[in-house]
Amino acid sequence: MQFIPLAERVRPQTIDDIVGQTHLLGEKAPIRQALLAKKLPSIIFWGPPGVGKTTIARILAKECGFPFKTLSAVTAGVKEVRAVIDETKLFGTIILFIDEIHRFNKSQQDSLLGAIESGKIILIGATTENPSFEVNNALLSRCQVYTLNPLTKEELNQIIINAFLKDDYLKKYDQIKFNYYKLIEFSGQDARKLLNGLESLISNSENKTSISDEEMAEILQDNSLQFDKDGEYHYDVISAFIKSIRGSDPQAAIYYLARMIAGGEKPDFVARRLVILASEDIGMANPNALLYANACMQSVKMIGMPESRIILSNCTIYLATSPKSNSTYMAIDNALAFVKKTGNLPIPLQLRNSPTPLMKDLGYGQNYQYAHNYENNFVFTELMPTEISNQVFYYPASNTKESEIKKSLLFNWKNKYNLEPKSND
Q1: What values do phi and psi take at 240, rounded to 5?
Q2: Is the dihedral of CA 169, 174, 179, 183 positive or negative?
Q3: Closest C-alpha to 150, from 172, 171, 128, 173
Q4: How far apart are CA 278 and CA 246, in angstroms?
């Protein structure tokens, strides 16, 4: 007899059986309303693994009464898509479910357009990636995108209860005691992984009345982290990591660093981001931060893993606990925006290069005052184009180092530059 996994045995058969996603499936929610109106649009379901994308697609096909065909974008291509379209000549409208549709390239996605437009195909695509980035605009414009939410602990707990109520095999062991929330933690909010774990627990504990946490850990073992290095989770975790350092929270920063390391992120990628952060978010508040981050990057390249985890931890904590300033980042962006608006203003004559006699006759380089010839290596002179003599781009931030810089600038330049940042009001 063919073995059928628990997740398949207890798969919901109607919308009312589905746990979660009430924002789509509730009484006045869009998918239920579409079913009642018998007007099902092409749909792209976007959400993490194990939240019901395939199940909902199957139920929609069943309740609409259309033939249901499935393809996986991992193994299928244009040929398989056209074969399904050809079947519409015999069966009429077909609901075509394409799992991992983000893996289809542009030509594969384009092969669907005509059939969707004509109504031969109602497409239901499933993706764990943001469709705005992974699905081309032509296909997106023909589909309704619905976001599926991660399942809550309460919803996952209900799925466990439902499994014991519905499955004949599990009913024999409904008195067995174990830590439901330990299993939920293992699942990573993935209902399929939750049910696979539940089945593994029961099948390995058939003669027991209870399962300890230690026994659960031994049976389940794999608590792999969700970290797709090419997908959205990758960018979410690195974003949280950077923002935690920027927010001066070394505890959160180390947590997200651990998430990346455990998920297999390349250490040199993390190190490069630390170098960028040292300039963008710390800057003049601690000029040594850039040197520190650069040393981290070079060390990571030289040492490799697993030892590089210590180097990355060291740099992460150093940067998270450093004073913060984005003044140099803002300065260059202010200057670039100003240059774009004002164009090539004339360079003061005394600052121009004078490699030819004609240029010298025109006054290029004349009256230039060499700063090192003066006390403290400074001389008050005009270095800006005349039209913007008093323009300020760099405003020293309020930290110890830049307070000293501000004091020095005010002493040297007197009232030439107003170093008080402009109000946004």
Answers
A1: -65, -40
A2: positive
A3: 128
A4: 9
Tokens of 234: 């990758």
The identity of residue 222, as a single letter, is D
Distance of CA 323 to the CA centre of its chain: 26
Place of tokens 């330049």: 413
Query: Can you give the pLDDT at residue 425?
Result: 47
> 224, 178, 214: which is closest to 198 by C-alpha?
178
The CATH homologous superfamily to which domain 21-147 belongs is P-loop containing nucleotide triphosphate hydrolases (3.40.50.300)
Under DSSP, is residue 382 helix (H, G, I), strand (E, B) or coil? coil
User: Which fold is adopted by the domain 153-220?
Assistant: Helicase, Ruva Protein; domain 3 (1.10.8)
Note whether 199 and 6 are within 8 A (CB).
Answer: yes
Matching residue, tokens 């000549």: 89
**Cα–Cα distance for residue pair 25/401, rounded to 1 Å:** 57
Report mean pLDDT in 10-residue bins for the chain, 425 residues: 78 89 89 85 88 89 87 84 89 88 84 88 87 83 88 89 87 82 81 86 79 80 50 71 92 91 83 93 93 94 87 95 92 89 83 77 81 86 85 87 88 87 62
CATH of 232-320, one of 1.10.10.10, 2.40.160.10, 1.20.272.10, 3.40.50.1820: 1.20.272.10
Tokens of 175: 């008195």
What tokens appear for 257 in the block?
A: 């660093």
How far apart (Å, rounded) are the C-alpha atoms in residues 260 and 313? 12
Whether the Cβ atoms of residue 53 and residue 81 lie closer than 8 Å to each other: no
Structure tokens that stand for 6 in this block: 């628990």
Question: Do residues 319 and 293 touch, judged by C-beta distance below 8 A?
Answer: yes
10 Å CB burial of residue 92 (0-12, 13-18, 19+) is: exposed
Q: What is the C-alpha R_g of the chain?
A: 31
Where do the H-state alpha helices sit in 278-399?
A: 288-303, 308-320, 327-342, 357-361
- CA angle at residue 387 from 381 to 391, to 5 degrees? 70
Residue with tokens 């297999």: 264
Tell me the C-alpha distance between 286 and 305, whole Å.
28
